[in-house]
Design goal:
Elements: E1 2-9, E2 12-18, H1 21-27, H2 32-36, E3 45-49, E4 59-64, H3 68-93, H4 98-119, E5 126-131
Antiparallel strand pairs: 1-2, 1-4, 2-3, 4-5
Helix pairs in contact: 3-4
Amino acid sequence: MKGRVLKVIDDKVELRLFCDAKKASMDGHCGACQALKTENNNSDIIIAQNTINAKIGDEVELGLKEHAELKSATILLMVPLAIFIVALGVANGLHLSVWASVLIGVLTLGITYASVKLIYKNKTYYYLLGGK
């Protein structure tokens, strides 16, 4: 994947992803190009570790840290699910009604997702490989 640096923020950069037209013309599109498109036909903006001291306007190639997908899925899906199940068990142990247990579980799930979003707000598994 490639991106263009929009902002430098401490040891991270904010960049807009784009399709590498030269590579796409030789090998065809890999599918990431279509995945990057949004409703207004712009590509996504992400944050990556600035491992090569890129400056605003630089075109850079991105890498993804090892096991990043697994770590992200665990943090975003499995942890809230486990906390949700524990909350249901605790509510059931307190002999609350089914609807009260569900309400407690859903509230706990919402609080867990909000906490994950706050804690991992600037977390990134992307890093810069090289650039122009």
